[in-house]
Specification:
Blueprint: H1 10-23, H2 27-54, H3 57-65
Helix pairs in contact: 1-2
């Protein structure tokens, strides 16, 4: 395992300390999890951008045209229905 020595503002450290205590994990574990989550988010964004580049609008519209033109079921409504 690699050790990393970083400087962070006291306010962030206190928040990390409190959250780690709340989650019943060490600060090291909390920071490792936070870094992993951030990496995952960035890698997912990159993956989606790469997939979007391969997309073809005409194929998308052709598939969309096969969907029925009906209102969504009750549980799928978002926001105002007017």
């Amino acid at each position: 395992m690699t050790q990393l020595n970083i400087s962070i503002p006291d306010s962030i450290y206190k928040s990390v300390q409190a959250l780690a205590t709340q989650e019943d994990i060490s600060i090291d574990q909390f920071v490792a999890l936070a870094l992993g989550e951030k990496m995952s988010a960035l890698m997912t964004e990159d993956y989606l951008l790469q997939r979007a580049k391969r997309g073809q609008r005409d194929k998308f519209l052709a598939v969309l045209a096969t969907a029925p033109d009906v209102d969504p079921i009750e549980d799928d409504w978002l926001g105002n229905r007017t």
